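Q: what does this look like with magnesium ion bound?
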Amino acid sequence: MANLPPSDDTIAAIATAPGLGAVGVVRVSGPGAYALADAVFAPGNGSRPSATKPGRVVYGHVVDGDRRVDEALLLTFRAPRSYTGQDVVELQTHGGPAALRATLDACLRSGARLAGPGEFTLRAYLAGRIDLLQAESVMDVVEAQTDASLRNAGFGLSGALGERLGTVQSDILEAYAAVQAAFDYPDDDVPEQALEEPVARAAGELRRLLATAEAGRLSRMGARLALMGRPNVGKSSLLNALLGYERSLVSATPGTTRDYLEAPLTLGGVPVTAIDTAGIRQAEDAIEASGVTLAKRIAEQADLRLLLLDGSESLSEQLDERARAELAKGRTLVVVTKADLTEAWDEAELRLPPGAEPAGRVSALTGEGLRELETAVVAALLGSAAGAEVWLGNERHVAAITAALETVERAGAQARGGWYELAALDLQEAMRSLAGITGRDGIGEETLASIFSRFCVGK
Ligand SMILES: Nc1nc2c(ncn2[C@@H]2O[C@H](COP(=O)(O)OP(=O)(O)OP(=O)(O)O)[C@@H](O)[C@H]2O)c(=O)[nH]1
Ligand SMILES: [Mg+2]
């Protein structure tokens, strides 16, 4: 069983990212933080660090015994007004690995313990300064790669998601009270809506949050977008146009792209890996045949596929039975290319099967239709969550909300059938699932240990 580290000793860690940087920070937290600062920091004005007013920045040197380690700034925070709620000092040194390592060593020699991953944030949580939801959001902010994931993390950090869950919790409590009343006083009629309404409100809000889970997952993990189509339809040209630089080889010879190639881009806040593939046809040699097999596999595994059709060439050859069968598998947008050339057919002739959506006409040459295509891709990836204020970005929260929704819905059905006792149990379970997200009402030590172990050291 995983154990939490002690929270009453003094810990230290390098808080900035490894590598070269102009400034690096060693963070120290615990009851011995100020004594430690006296031992490892010599202010330029000859004062003692422990005598400085909290919140001040002091110039001086990090020292290790008689040795000057580096020029540095000292920042001081007094409990409880610090990140961890404890006495905290931060040493800002030059950012090179040697200076930081030597500063940390001086701290460890002066009695600090090396902090484990997430230990500073764990202390903030244990001190009651932040709830678990906010603690996890700290990690999400640190890890955020795109604006959208940063916005989602900020939503958890500010407590706004906690507030929305709080509303759900009070609805569930209200339903619970109604169920209890119906059970305790079977002779007094408890009006049906006293139970139905809060259950419906709670379930509705949980469903709205869950509808954004896929978008949240994609904003963290990224989406894979496969470009497919016959040789020469303009797959490589479209990839280059989307990227804004020449990534993939383009030529008038059909069968130019034989291998596949991946390129990263961001669409609507979602990190997307666009994959250019070999044109699909009866291959002329073994290498091309391997490329075609690979292209089909990539299309199978993609989150979304773009099927490209050349608008200036005959449609029937490009959209044969095999291509139509592929379309029927869903998750596919149909893109008509070479919009700058004369149209050889009308879009009405497409007659797309369900699962495939038209995404307009584009020209890689003139840029026509590219914005609209990007919008269509984002809409297809995110669904209704595209317009939502925030997305649920954390798997643990998604699991807890899914469980809460199931039990709330079941409680509603039980209560309608007159099974009040069972409904009450389900509502209690739903409360427990939601409480596990914020951790306000207690959470197992093992869960805590596993959550904080995913942090980086120094946070
Ligand atoms: N006029 C015009 N020509 C285009 C456009 N997009 C591509 N082409 C031309 O079409 C030909 C094929 O383009 P590619 O991007 O190599 O096509 P592909 O689908 O990657 O072809 P393969 O790799 O052979 O499967 C090239 O001669 C391009 O210049 C477009 O939007 N307008
Ligand atoms: Mg190509």
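Residues 218-387 form a domain with the Rossmann fold fold (CATH 3.40.50.300). The first strand starts at residue 11 and ends at 14.
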